[in-house]
Amino acid sequence: MPEQTVIEAVRDTMFAEMRRDDSVIVLGEDVGNRGGVFLATDGLIDEFGEDRVIDTPLAESSICGVALGAAVNGMRPIAEIQFADFVWPAINQLVGEASKVRYGTNGVKTAPMTVRVPYGGGVRGGLYHSQSIEVLFAHTPGLSVVAPATPYDAKGLLASAIRSDDPVIVLEHKRTYRLVKGDVPAEDYTIPIGKAEIKRPGTDLTIFTYGLMLHYSLQAADMAAANGIDVEVLDLRTLRPIDEDAIAESASRTGKALIVQEDTPAVSISSEVAAIIGERCFFDLDGPITRLGPPEIPPMPFSPIQEAAFMPSPEKILAAITRLAEI
Amino acid sequence: MPFNIELPHVGESVTEAVIGKWLKSPGDKIEKYDPLVEVITDKVNMDVPSPASGTLTKIIAEEGDTVQMGAVIAEMDATDAVNNSAPPTDQVPDISSTGSPSASRIGTMVQGANVGPTGGEFTDTSLNAADTAVPAASGTTGSTPGKKRGFSPVVTRLATQHGIDLNTLVGTGLGGRVTKNDVLNAVESGGSGAESASSTPSGVAAEDQVIDPSPIRKMIANHMVKSMSEIPHAWSAIEVDVTGMVEWRTSNRDRFQSEHGVRLTYLPIALSVVADALKDNPRLNSSWLDGKIVLKSAINVGVAVAAEAGLVVPVVHDASGTSIVDLAGTLDGVVSRARSGSMTLDDVQGGTFTLNNTGALGSIWGGAIINHPQAAILTTEAIVKRPVVISKDGVDAVEIRSMMNICLSFDHRIVDGAEASAFLQSVKTGLEAISLTTDLK
Amino acid sequence: MSATANQSSNSTAQLSGERLHELYQTMVLSRYLDQRVWLLNRQGKAAIAASAQGHEATQVACIEATDPTKDHYLIYYRQFAAMIALGTEPEEMLRGFLAKEGDPMSAARQFPLHGAHPRVDLFNFSNVIATQLPQAAGVALADKLKGSDAVTVVFFGDGASSQGDTHEAMNFAGVHKLPVIFFCENNRYAISVPIEKQMGIESVASRAIGYGFPGVQVDGTDVVAVHEATVAAVARARSGEGPTLIEASVERLLPHTTDDDHTRYRSAEDIEQMSQRDPIRILSDLLKRRDLLTDSEDEAIHAEAQKRVNVATDTVDAEPYPDTSTMFDHITAGSGNNAGNNTGGNA
After folding, report:
1. How many C-beta atoms lie closer than 10 Å to residue A227's C-beta?
2. CB-based contact (8 Å) between C131 and chain A?
3. Residue B298: which CATH number?
4. Mean pLDDT for each 10-residue chunk of chain A (327 residues)?
5. How many structural domains does chain B have?
6. What is C270-285 written as a DSSP string?
7. Is residue B139 part of a domain?
8. Residue C8 or A3, more confident
9. DSSP secondary-structure letter at C51?
10. What is the percentage of chain C residues whose pLDDT exceeds 90?
């Protein structure tokens, strides 16, 4: 079974989808001749030409607005936003417009577009190359938001996003691009949007997480096992529509919930997961729903010690596991 | 300048005081610290000093009024800079500590002030009685009611904290769930206390049988303890010659059954007479509540019934003025519901007096426990044929008469011996007035 | 006399007399329906309306130069007359304004004139200003990739030309020489903000040169002039020469919308003066001068339009509102009385 990094899986998926379907095009800053600043689109322009791999002007709103227009007229555009921190000018076209195309036209128009967004920190990115942006999108009816953290999931979810007939935001944690390597089958497969996955079964408590934190949580779970604590790790994978059933099933079974997230906790995905567990698992809980996240400061400082203080880590997660298990 | 004089806060746990004698009158000149009025509290009697110099203008709390600490008791026209009895607060009021804002600060909605979608003044007439209920989007999640469930986190915690055996509690929540309040109530009424299903009380020999009381038994137990510990019981009894009543009943029994379909016992008769007697003796139909005697306007007589689970007291509402036939019918219904364990909330609520026919089991004398928070309980004892001395025209003779004792337990805070006897006499007179010729409805 | 949709591309610069006559009827119908909708708002039945009175000629003339069987139209909220010109029935328009069940554009989930047309490729996703311009560039991009000669016309006002999206869209379209016509209806007011506070230039069209394509200014009350300019722009687009920016100067005869009161910011003289540039009267005069219209014919056209509008109003007034269950339709593919997407909690 071939092994790939996340970025390789992402790139190969785009190759495969563009070969499979002529209507798939890629647009964004530096995606063409440079192959993207992370090399996510490396080689695409050589195979598919500059009609289908478009180096756009430096203007995020129109990157997404043009993608939307093209999607509405028969294409399947993959727009790349170079860094999540730059997505804000495009919020209007994504949250304001794309999410409501089908709804606002009573199904006459649809917007089968994908927006790929590298996000997240721990890369000495400072305040403007480290942001997590999921909350606004995950809050929006009409949008889907996925956050694959493994190469296997990146291929399957990106393929689903491209094939979806509605707008999908694909959040790729930039730290995982080269950090995470894993098995990726060569054959075509998709992972359904809206399905979480238990990456590590366990009995004493469940960690609910996504993105880079998945890998830190798995490390922490291994350390906890050495101390006799059996931790289950549920990878959310999709942030909207969030897999309520999987969340409730795991929380009810283990009775203790620890939600680990890199994004600041207030009004976040972890708030939503906590609410779901509270609503559906109340009588099965054997301890308080616990959230582990960074401090409530703008994410995240550039200086290394401060960045480390901000980011959750396997050690911090282990400490939270131990506290919760003891209750 | 005008100034309100408040009842100052004195004493840590004192919240109110009774106004005694006013030492100043409106129009009087007063100096700061002059005693204005005597007040009586639980802990202390004191004089309230004037907070300022000036003239007393108005007395608001009169002698005998009970007033909360901090309430305005008088008004004055102060001539000097005033210091409240309360310690000085900051210039800027602390908004967080002043409780809910006044209605005027909240504001009210102006009728007819319309706004269009983008400003303007569009008055929407598109909705009339349209049903604007939103259909539940399918796939809604959340706890399913009625599902058999275990104990919630807080229930478990409280049970552990207080040593309550949760399996003994009757749940009043949805689907019979034991709620937080169920546990707290159990804690308050003594609950299992230190006793749990698994522990046996000391002083139990090996051959003794230890029974875990049922929830109803526990409730009865708590109720009895409460009544005995709170109400100072006193007792009085009287003999009643019910020969006439017995004859009346014997001769009317069959007719009653055929005409009204109702079994005729002495109970509806006793109930009717007792209800009338309560009308004439209202203090027997009252309750001691928060230091006051509350005379109940309704006469709702509870009738003690031995149901399988234990003693229950279904209530006959508005027993006074109801015909014997109707009372018999009502009693029939209510008693059978009690015996079959299918009483409604109405059946057990609102009782103002209790009647217990202990005589049915042969008792000739009883000292029943008052059904808290009522004022009294009456037992009707067994009807026994006895030789009795009857005086007729000054001549004493011995006759065989049907005699029934009636025994009253009463709350001696509300009722004294004289009133108790007067009530008993009313009942006696009412019952003895019945004879073969009486036309009872 | 219902509005006749443009049958085929009228790419000749000349408009026949007969065709002018028909366009006039369309404009008159639009005017009467427009007036009726305003009244319905004052009655509390139509929550919001943006009038196209003063814009009728430019919209009708522009549509006339295109091919509704293949071209794309991205409109904004003031395109009342354009919709009638594209064959929208008065009943369909009224269903939108009265928010009734059968609204063809959005099932009454949107403001009127928003959504997507059932018969021609006309759509308007939102009333956020100028978001449709980058979208239009995207539509045109797709046509270029597909090798289609369809043209995308995107309408917007003078205020929208200040938005960042306008700049980004024109920039992108200029780089890629896209088959898009940027059609600006300049009525010199963005709600209350007059043009001299909106831009430092005199003409919106003068911006085109900054994006590498031509800008054309026309009198928006002159059907013939607008038609001629659009024909030229369509030809450019279809032949791959790229975008054109057309600026049609018109008057907004009524306030911005039914929620606005333009006497608050326009003087009585100004309002009086601008009402002289009424395209209905201007075209009527032209037709009469050319003996293409008599007074009695004119009266008949007006009477017919009024009657048509009355019938349509009565019909739609009696129709029901959409059922609340349809609120859940079309959020994503496969939704519709089946939320499933994070309903959250106990509804």
Report:
1. 10
2. yes
3. 3.30.559.10
4. 93 98 97 94 97 96 98 98 96 98 97 98 92 97 97 97 98 95 95 97 96 96 96 98 98 95 98 98 90 96 91 97 91
5. 3
6. HHHHHTT--HHHHHHH
7. no
8. A3
9. -
10. 88
> Which residue is closest to C50 within chain B, CA to CA?
B118
Q: Name every residue whose Cβ is closer than 8 Å to that of residue C335 and which is 6 or more positions away in sequence.
A: C328, C329, C341
Q: How far apart are the first and last CA of chain C?
A: 50
**Which of B197, B212, B227 is the endpoint of a domain?**
B212
Please name the residue that has the structure tokens 């007729």: B392
Distance CA(A176)–CA(C196), nearest Å, equals: 52
Query: If you average pLDDT over each of A190-199, B30-39, B267-276, which comes out highest?
Result: A190-199
Do B273 and B173 belong to one domain? no
Q: Which residues on chain C are in Cβ contact (under 8 Å) with A89?
A: 164
For B6, the domain range is 2-109
Mean pLDDT across B174-194: 76
Residue B329 covered by a domain: yes
Q: What domains does chain C contain, in order, with CATH numbers?
A: 20-317 (3.40.50.970)
Q: Please indicate if any CB of chain C lies within 8 Å of the CB of B117.
A: yes
Residues B273 and B292 in one domain: yes
Residue B142 has pLDDT above 90, yes or no: no
Residue where a domain terminates, one of B170, B191, B212:
B212
**B268 and B416 co-located in one domain:** yes
- Does B441 fall in a domain? no
Note if C265 is an active site residue: yes
Total CB pairs under 8 A between chain A and C: 158
B81 and B105 co-located in one domain:
yes
User: DSSP assignment of A14-62, as one string?
Assistant: HHHHHHH-TTEEEEETT-STT--TTSTTTTHHHHHHHHHEEE--S-HHH
pLDDT digits (tens, 9 = 90+) for B220-263: 788 888 899 899 999 999 999 999 999 998 888 888 888 888 78
B117 within a domain of the structure (yes/no): no
Known catalytic residue at A129: yes
| Neighboring chain B residues of A280 at a CB cutoff of 8 Å | 141-143
Query: What pLDDT, in 10s, does the model give residues C100-114?
Result: 999 999 999 999 999
Window from A223-227, B271-275, B340-344 with minimum mean pLDDT:
B340-344
Provide, as residue numbers in chain C, all residues whose Cβ is less than 8 Å from the Cβ of B134: 324, 327, 347
Residue C335 DSSP symbol: -
Whether residues B251 and B399 share a domain: the answer is: yes
Domains and CATH numbers, chain A: 3-183 (3.40.50.970), 197-325 (3.40.50.920)
Query: What is the rounded average pLDDT of the residues B101-111?
Result: 73
- With CA atoms as reference, report the closest residue to B269 among B296, B248, B300: B248
